[in-house]
């Protein structure tokens, strides 16, 4: 999990709309592209993207994974172990 405050940054909306989903049983995350430096955004008085330095209103997200061999994969947790679970 990574704490990026937004992946879309426009004049009237700033929030998360882009995600990377993965399965921890079969993929080990090696790294990810971090968030924009909030000081850089403030110093440049950026009120939204696109911007000359950021050509899209969607901020790039990226993660690097290693595939866990089947012989080393752990079993997924039982359904009742999910935090909050689903209403029945």
From TrEMBL:
Matches recorded under InterPro entries: CCR4/nocturin_mRNA_transcr, Endo/exonu/phosph_ase_sf
Gene3D superfamilies linked to this entry: Endonuclease/exonuclease/phosphatase (3.60.10.10)
A GO term for molecular function: 3'-5'-RNA exonuclease activity
Protein name as catalogued: Endonuclease/exonuclease/phosphatase domain-containing protein
